[in-house]
Amino acid sequence: MALHPIAKATLQAALISAGSNMLAQGISSYRDETQFELDSQALFQFTTSALVLSPLTFLWLEGLEATFPGSDNATEKENEKPKLNVKNTVAKIVVDQVVGGAWYTVAFIATMGFLRGQDYEVIKGQIQNDFWPILIAGFKLWPLVSILNFTVVPADKRLLVGNLFGLVWGIYLSLMAA
């Protein structure tokens, strides 16, 4: 029995998130010259965050593609590769980076705060303190990922590609959240 695409993408995201958190913990241990000891609570929090946010990200990417189709299907001919709709692709990248990036940053900070048992005021303060540094750091990686995803990667593989780049991003977020 094959998994539904959203379930498959969510499972992939959770596994990659868990891996990135374990790598970040190893990096912290190495950097601090301490013996590695797995922080299972942090691992649980990052994995659970991926389980919560990935279905929303999957739906976000589907919505972007539906709103801004990446190819001009009307101009397709038999045995001809679909023509890239540049205007829609640029719009999709900008909306993904500005709206999607902001939404995901707030959702990540809030989800992690909730999983840590923090109250609303603490989470609100973390959003105010961490939003811009995380978003700006993300602008150094995610526009490239969006360009690749929306020009080369088939729509059904975009979350997987994003999750693979997310391995690096997850290490950064894990180190920042530590």
UniProtKB/TrEMBL annotation:
**Transmembrane feature ranges:** 93-115, 131-152, 159-177
UniProt entry tagged with the keyword Transmembrane? yes
Principal location class: membrane
Organism domain of life: Eukaryota
Protein localization:
Membrane
The record, for PANTHER family, names:
PEROXISOMAL MEMBRANE PROTEIN 2 (PTHR11266:SF80), PEROXISOMAL MEMBRANE PROTEIN 2, PXMP2 MPV17 (PTHR11266)
Please state which protein family the record places this protein in: Belongs to the peroxisomal membrane protein PXMP2/4 family.
Instruction: Give the protein's recorded name.
Output: Integral membrane protein, Mpv17/PMP22 family
Q: Which organism is it from?
A: Aspergillus lucknowensis
